[in-house]
Amino acid sequence: MTVEIGVEEIEDIALGATVLGTGGGGDPHVGKLVAKQAIEEFGPVELVHPDELSDDAFVVPTAQMGAPTVSVEKLPSGQEAVDSLERIERELDQEVDATMPIECGGINSTFPFAVAARRGLPVVDADGMGRAFPELHHETFNIYGVSGTPAAVSDERGNTCLIETEDNEQLEWLARGVTVRMGGVAYVSDYPMTGTQVKDTAIPGTMTLARNLGRELRVAEDDAMDAIRDVTRSSIYGEAQSLFEGKIVDVQRRTEHGFVFGHVDVDGLGRDEGSSMRIEFQNENLGAQVDGEYVATVPDLITVLDRETGGPIPTESLRYGARVRVLGIKTPEIMRTPAALDVWGPHSFGLETTYKPLEG
What we know:
single chain, CV3147-like fold, CV3147-like, 2 domains
């Protein structure tokens, strides 16, 4: 069913997508501001379920790529991704019917709404990751046979680069290099596809899930964890579960090759007193160890919440001394197939463990 997304819904999507984004996907506040400004200027956006698309609909996802810490310093206008989308239209001589997120997290859940508002397009209620991941081939679109190119990468100065590659890993490699040259953050349109391909390869309903999570967190009077459990329980994901509670005692970050790498160390509080957790990240949270043993890894979701307010904390906002709760959420089955784990399982990120799926 088509629904209308206005300013209030963008607030909820931004908050809920920060839970689903596992710490990454770009700064949610930036994406929210850009989307709200576009909706206030051009009007609300239709959110359509993949099943509502015609089989021959032309859909082009839009996103920001690069280091999240850089995106906070180089604020976008919202036109950047429109430029890349229109470059794809010119290349394929076909007008876009809808846009959609490539991932469910941070700026990249709300930024397509800015593009849609500016172009008068609907947004598809789906994405290609079901969370956030750091690289362009980390997509269900890629895993299940959609070509990522032609793709276009644009910056805030009006520069646009068109990319054609033989495979989607080369798309990531080349687009990342262009993004670094553009100052560490850029705006991409890729994986042009038909309505049939969206239905076959995308993870459906993720924008609605983000909106529902954000709305319940916003009105929660008691434990935010209970609100997240209630929403995830009835989703295609698994029910959220608490993995650890404690105080951040160390954060290490470095920006390299267009990514933010690092880890955060948490000393246990309450029931976890006497234990410690380390979370490793590459833009997004990848693995969580308690006392040296992994308790959750990609592709399952690892999200850090403020222990007092319940608000989700992106990786770039993790700070020494913060009291946090770490939660895990089981991913949909489309993200757990052998083909999917070959692309985004623990070994693909250098984690020295086998995938131990969360249940919920």
